[in-house]
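Ops channel
N.P.: pipeline sanity check, posting one input/output pair.
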């Protein structure tokens, strides 16, 4: 009888301890030693899986289009804000998460961690999209329809998938009583597709005014590339560590107008056409060997069959050959040079009038080893015609190269999470973001800017971004949620690289 009594007491005490542990953990007072033990598995119920894909479909149905710097669908941008409140109620009602609306439509979440000694990090995404005229789409671009296991629509890859996956992963963690140790920010921009100067830039200024520096940030623009490089049979997770710069130039020629029956020897159209043609036919110099690409190829070398593996391992010898091979393909060409794209051309008012003015716009994406100034000088030399005026519409240098060594927290966390969620992916390599993103507005608050979307991308998917038939498989979206769910937890528990053990 006495034995039963003691046992009963012990059980009651254990129960009490359990209640204490739960109560304190919910308030964030859990000790460090408990954190490792309380890792939450990234397993989702059938009901949760259905809810997460329906949430993404709903987001796609809101036409948050940025048409130009001046024009966007503001009704949809506001509706998007209400929508995320509705589908992620726990994110908005948790006391250690602060939510702020910036410049009317962008969102900043501050998730307060329990350990202030850990430097915070930041997750970035944007929910505005480029326009999507219905022609050519298999399903209407704002229908969010599911077909053959894919969710279709504008923004499914760029970049509502990330917006929704970040909030979804956080919602699922919070429902499971998760309390982060490391603080983090979630910044969701509403105007990335037209520069990010109202959303990302303002969020960045707000954080700077608060004296915040983050250890690293993760943004869009890189994927697990599959089938992009001939002969490379395996997928390659590319974590981009820099972003190209940009230069938008307006070229203008003014000439005296007149009657077309007695034309001058040269017209504004002819002069301008010759100038832009020279630009197109004179590619910017091949910069292979400078920037992170050499490092990338050296890491990829072992994955290629003979003799490519030998060639890539000996770039000191085969550099000229590899640099020429890279420029042959229009995608790998983007990695070796500043690209030149003629994007707009306007002239003429009537068929029998010699036009007074001709204008063309050229969009350059600047290689990480060049600057705006250097590209401008090259352009002047190529155009080599004083009658062609050059007006800089927009210009910024490439982003500095973020660290990818053993000590680089952001890079290593991404690498570790890629390896656990995609065990079939053997290659994780640093890369270059060839487009521009909101992250360029955050260079003052971090030296660790990484671009990675945990989604497989094949060449045909690449053309759907800003093109037609953009879609994501339900399974790929679930995996993206799972990736962020793991990444957030890894950021708490990461203890640095495992030291190399040298055998004697
Ligand atoms: C091992 C294989 C390597 C193969 C590399 C392949 C590279 C493919 C890269 C895919 C990139 C997808 C890009 C998605 C993000 C696009 C972001 C974007 O479109 N930003 C706009 C921003 C902008 C710029 C100028 C005016 C307004 C907005 C952009 O045009 O850059
Ligand atoms: Zn984007
Ligand atoms: Zn885009």
């Amino acid at each position: 009888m006495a034995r039963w009594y003691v046992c009963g007491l012990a059980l009651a005490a254990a129960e009490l301890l359990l209640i204490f542990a739960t109560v304190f953990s919910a308030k964030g007072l859990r000790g460090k030693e408990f954190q490792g033990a309380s890792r939450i598995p990234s397993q989702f119920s059938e009901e949760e899986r259905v809810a997460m894909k329906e949430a993404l479909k709903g987001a796609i149905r809101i036409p948050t289009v940025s048409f130009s710097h001046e024009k966007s669908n503001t009704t949809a941008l506001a509706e998007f804000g209400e929508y995320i409140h509705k589908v992620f109620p726990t994110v908005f009602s948790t006391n250690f998460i602060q939510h702020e609306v910036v410049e009317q439509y962008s969102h900043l979440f501050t998730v307060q961690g329990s350990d202030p000694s850990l430097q915070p990090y930041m997750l970035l995404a944007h929910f505005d999209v480029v326009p999507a005229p219905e022609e050519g789409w298999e399903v209407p671009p704002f229908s969010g329809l599911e077909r053959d296991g894919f969710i279709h629509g504008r923004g499914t890859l760029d970049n509502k998938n990330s917006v929704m996956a970040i909030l979804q992963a956080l919602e699922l963690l919070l429902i499971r009583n998760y309390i982060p140790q490391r603080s983090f920010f979630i910044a969701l921009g509403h105007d990335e597709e037209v520069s990010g100067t109202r959303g990302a830039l303002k969020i960045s200024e707000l954080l700077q005014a608060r004296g915040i520096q983050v250890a690293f940030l993760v943004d869009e623009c890189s994927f697990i590339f599959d089938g992009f490089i001939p002969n490379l049979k395996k997928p390659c997770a590319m974590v981009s560590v820099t972003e190209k710069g940009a230069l938008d130039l307006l070229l203008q020629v003014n000439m005296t107008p007149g009657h077309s029956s007695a034309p001058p020897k040269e017209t504004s159209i002819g002069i301008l056409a010759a100038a832009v043609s020279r630009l197109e036919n004179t590619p910017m110099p091949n910069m292979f060997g400078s920037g992170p690409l050499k490092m990338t190829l050296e890491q990829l070398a072992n994955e290629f069959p003979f003799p490519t593996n030998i060639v890539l391992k000996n770039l000191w010898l085969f550099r000229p050959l590899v640099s020429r091979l890279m420029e042959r393909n229009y995608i790998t060409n983007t990695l070796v040079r500043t690209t030149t794209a003629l994007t707009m051309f306007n002239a003429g008012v009537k068929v029998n009038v010699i036009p007074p003015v001709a204008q063309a716009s050229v969009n350059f994406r600047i290689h990480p080893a060049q600057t705006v100034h250097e590209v401008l000088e090259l352009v002047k030399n190529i155009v080599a015609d004083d009658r062609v005026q050059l007006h800089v519409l927009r210009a910024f240098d490439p982003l500095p190269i973020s660290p990818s060594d053993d000590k680089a927290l952001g890079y290593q966390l991404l690498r570790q999470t890629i390896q656990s969620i995609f065990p079939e992916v053997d290659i994780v390599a640093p890369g270059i973001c060839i487009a521009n993103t909101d992250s360029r507005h955050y260079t003052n608050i971090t030296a660790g800017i990484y671009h990675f979307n945990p989604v497989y991308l094949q060449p045909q998917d690449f053309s759907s971004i800003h093109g037609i038939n953009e879609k994501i498989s339900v399974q790929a979206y679930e995996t993206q949620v799972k990736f962020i769910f793991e990444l957030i937890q890894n950021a708490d528990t990461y203890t640095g690289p495992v030291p190399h053990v040298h055998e004697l």
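N.P.: looks fine end to end. Confidence is low (pLDDT under 50) at residues 1-35.
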